[in-house]
Amino acid sequence: MVTAMLFAGGVGSRMNAAGKPKQFMEVGGKPIIIHTMEHFATHKEVDKIVVACKEDWIDYLKGLVEKFEVKKLHSIVPGGETGFDSIHNGVVETASFSTKPDDIILICDGVRPILTEKLITDCIELTRKHGTAVPVTPSIDSLLYSEDGDMCEKSYKRSSMYVTQAPQGYTMEKILWAHSEAEKRGILNPVSSSELFIELGHPVKLYIGDRRNIKVTTPEDLDMLRATYFYEKFKQLAREEINEE
User: Fold this and answer.
1) The pLDDT value given to residue 228
2) In sequence order, which residues have a C-beta less than 8 Å from that of residue 37 and are 6 or more positions away?
3) Beta-strand (E) ranges in 39-122?
4) Is the pTM of this model over 0.70?
5) What CA–CA distance (Å, rounded) separates 54 from 233?
6) Which of 11, 13, 95, 194 could form a disulfide with 134 if both were Cys (CB 3.0 to 4.6 A apart)?
């Protein structure tokens, strides 16, 4: 079984969206989270979808799922105070029905609306083979390290640096182990599941993702998403006109 677990429990404070969480902002007449869910709902290898949502927006999300007829949704659970809390709630919910050790969970932000079928397929295939699969893109910028954001005394070799993306794939056996160990060791708020595994001393399998697979976090990201969406629509219309001729 393959379950997509989307976490969308945040308020999007960096988006300055006047009270509406960023996952519910619309692009092309459709909320960002619905765009994201549809990529998993239409993928032939994904069996179920679980969403960890900001609690007072759960009913709103249920209405959107019904309106846009999103398939494969199994359940919506309350998010937590942090992103990791939301992921944990979604993992626990997934474990209630996905009980085989080699079942797969795809953990993804609810605000990655430009996912591709290939990216999801690669994640599933590599997770089956390695137990973990984390999409990344090579860093194209030089990286400097600073504790205070003011003075820097350390840099990193760019060719060894990668930017993580999602979905991140794990077998249920491995993700449940990681969350259990996090509780035992007092690891309260890892930035991502891959960083949790690394902090626990467990390597993760990397694979090359897609630079277009943006996480919509800031107003600039939203502008890029809208530009990409309408550009793709324009290309589609152009192709249709050529075919008609």
Assistant:
1) 80
2) 4, 6, 49, 51, 65, 70, 73, 110
3) 48-53, 73-78, 104-109
4) yes
5) 31
6) 194
Helix or strand or coil: residue 76? strand
Give the CA angle between residues 45, 202, 84 to the nearest 5°: 65
Alpha-carbon distances of 75 from 13, 55, 149, 209, 229, rounded to whole Å? 26, 13, 41, 28, 28
> pLDDT means per 10 residues in the chain (245 residues)?
90 60 90 96 98 95 97 96 93 98 97 95 98 96 90 90 96 98 91 94 96 90 81 63 60
- The full DSSP string for 103-171 is -EEEEEETT-TT--HHHHHHHHHHHHHHSEEEEEEE--S-EEE-SSSS---EEE-GGG-EEE-S-EEEE
> CA angle 158-200-101, nearest 5°?
110
Of 14, 47, 56, 49, give the one whose Cα is nearest residue 34.
49
Cβ atoms of 48 and 91 within 8 Å: the answer is no
Position 23, amino acid: Q
d(CA 225, CA 22): 12
The answer to whether 77 and 155 are in contact (CB under 8 A) is: no
The type of residue at 28 is G
Q: Evaluate the CA torsion angle 44, 162, 201, 190 in order and state its sign.
A: negative
What is the H or E stretch that residue 180 is in? helix 172-185
